[in-house]
Amino acid sequence: MDSKAAVARFEAAMTGQAALAGGDPVVESAVRALRDALGPAARQLALELAEQAAAEVDAQLPHQQVEVVLRGGQPELVIRAGMEGERRPADEEYEARISLRLPPSLKGAIEEAARSAGESVNSFLVRDLSRLTARSGRVGKRMRGTLRT
After folding, report:
1. Is 66 left (phi over 0), alpha (psi -120 to 50) or beta?
2. What digits encode the pLDDT tens for the residues 8-32?
3. Gap between the Cα atoms of 104 and 125, Å rounded
4. Spatial contact of 32 and 19, defined as CB atoms under 8 Å apart
5. What local confidence, expressed as pLDDT, does residue 87 receive?
6. Is residue 51 part of a domain?
7. d(Cα 77, Cα 56) in Å, to the nearest integer?
8. Strands (DSSP E) along 1-149, which ranges?
9. pTM above 0.70, yes or no
10. Residue 123: domain span
11. List of residues 6+ apart from 113 with CB closer than 8 A
12. How many domains are contained in the chain?
């Protein structure tokens, strides 16, 4: 994804709007300052849109995992093959419930992450927990002991 081009188009649109003011130097200066101040927010927005796109595509591919990876500061969608027999939460009805106590700070962080991903808290947690449990049997197992060479 070329987020730099999208941000550049946004900045050009702001400059174009300033030009409609008829060359007023005060307006042009204000637009430059606003454009510079909004640059980081525009880049963050581009990343969040990439994350939302990945989540939507991921939900539609039953045996694939779609993630956003930053390479050279640019977001890229990466598709990884999942296990053929792996069930995804979308294949099931949401009937089971678990009561879970969380510290308020963790609850807030989860809600913010779900909001950033453009998902409900339930969908966000089900997706991430499904990925974690699907991976737990394949990689990342910890072993304790001593290795002698």
Report:
1. beta
2. 888 888 888 888 878 788 888 898 8
3. 16
4. no
5. 47
6. no
7. 12
8. 64-71, 74-81
9. no
10. 84-140
11. 124
12. 1
SS3 11: helix
Residue at 99 is within a domain: yes
Token pair listed for 3:
């987020």
- The string of DSSP letters for 35-99 reads HHHHHHHHHHHHHHHHHHHHHHHHHH-TTEEEEEEEETTEEEEEEEE--TTPPPGGGS-------
Cα–Cα distance measured from residue 88 to residue 101, given in angstroms and rounded to the nearest whole number: 25
The CA distances from residue 44 to 5, 40, 50, 138, in Å, are: 14, 6, 10, 33
Assigned domain for 59 exists = no
Q: Tokens for 117, please give them.
A: 């991903």
Flag whether pLDDT at 105 surpasses 90.
yes
Return the residue matching tokens 């300033």: 18
3-state class (DSSP) for residue 142: coil
Q: Is the pLDDT of residue 145 over 70?
A: no
Helix, strand and coil content of the chain, in percent to the nearest 5, comes to 60, 10, 30
Within a domain: residue 18? Answer: no
